[in-house]
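User: Fold this; tokens only.

Assistant: Input:
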Amino acid sequence: MNPVYITFGLYLVAVLGIGFFAYFSTRNFDDYILGGRSLGAFVTAMSAGASDMSGWLLMGLPGAIYASGLIEAWIAIGLTIGAYFNWLLVSGRLRVHTELNNNALTLPEYFAHRFGEHGKLMKVVSAAIILFFFTIYCASGIVAGARLFQSLFEGMSYETAMWLGAGATIIYTFIGGFLAVSWTDTLQASLMIFALILAPVMVYLALGGAAEMNAAIAQAATQSGVQYSQLFPTEGAGWLAAISAAAWGLGYFGQPHILARFMAAESVKSLHSARRIGMTWMILCLGGAVAVGYFGIAYFGANPADVGALAGKKERIFIALTTLLFNPWIVGIILSAILAAVMSTLSCQLLLCSSAITEDFYKGFFRPNASQKELVWLGRMMVLLIAVISIVIAYNPESEVLGLVANAWAGFGAAFGPVVILSLLWKRMTAKGALAGMIAGAVVVIAWGPMFKDSASWLENVYEMIPGFIACGLAVVIVSLLDKAPSTAVQQRFDEADAAYRRAE
């Protein structure tokens, strides 16, 4: 038997085993969606990290660095800064505010209770935005999984690879819910950091050292005309690209799957430890991903005969280097790490979509008195439905992981980011302001690309997150100030939550 297949198979058995174990710990819908708000610091940190760093970390980002050089590292820099401020400003406050706002289990439910009026409309709009962008996000995970299975099993069609890649994730999410997703995330995060630290070290050793690597990169730059080593741009267009890449960091404040980890933490205190663990893990992983792409330029520059391992896809750089340089047993572990990255994000996104339909639509509008068992099983059915829709979107074999993620990430960041931040910091914010912000952010993100496509304008190269985030923030502030102040009850509840957060700090 091939060692790669054995290690890969053992990993799949492990995550499915965790799914079945979590099944028996899931007693009600609160457990299925948020794990009964019982996650400790380590699991919170690993789960937030793994659900965030999906297949794009091991495929999309190294691929972008390999194609364009260190200029794309601004994505990693922006994400690190954004994640830190998300932990600092949002995590603890959101944990307290959601609990005191009717023990809200989802972001739409929190918005509905936080603002009091227009609660139902708030739920519908925010849940609809979640479903739209998450379905695209899930598709990116399925594409990444398909690429991996195609790499592992030569000759496998893209369609078969897609169904196989998505299958295991769907099964353990369906069975075990949030607990399964969080526990598997911890395993997956450990695999990811192992792979991302080991791979660049092995490439470095294979090349013979720093001098050989720099010479190979310089040669590759001469041949392609791309300044791979240039982090700081020298012209306006380059700075625009760097700012757009760094703007990825703004997205953190509005990602429902990351915010759900904060809501599920056992206490505000545990989030302090989680922040330190999570940021350390993140910096090491992002640094490793950048190094994989950058060192890959040197490796294939020095070994042009091996370029065929990429199969013409830059996003295969990590997979190609792994299969060329590692022992088959290690290859199996590292390929499992790539699948882990894909699965960890896909699973929590499926769960969030399921909760949006079950909690915010079904229970919110049709069956307010539905039993816990009914809600759990409907949640499971919705996991299957969203998975099938995402598979349909992912059916195009030319889909690029980073492109799909970029669009969905911008959608959430722009629609929810300013709304979440201001809802936790500004009690004068109103329901109409929140609604106006969500709609403005989502519309700008969706319309920006088509509006400036082929326009030859510099605006075409601006990442849609930036105008979307600004539009949302302005809409929230302007409409809130034009609207009458929130009711005394809403402001009182805000003050109580704010005071509870400061006591818990």
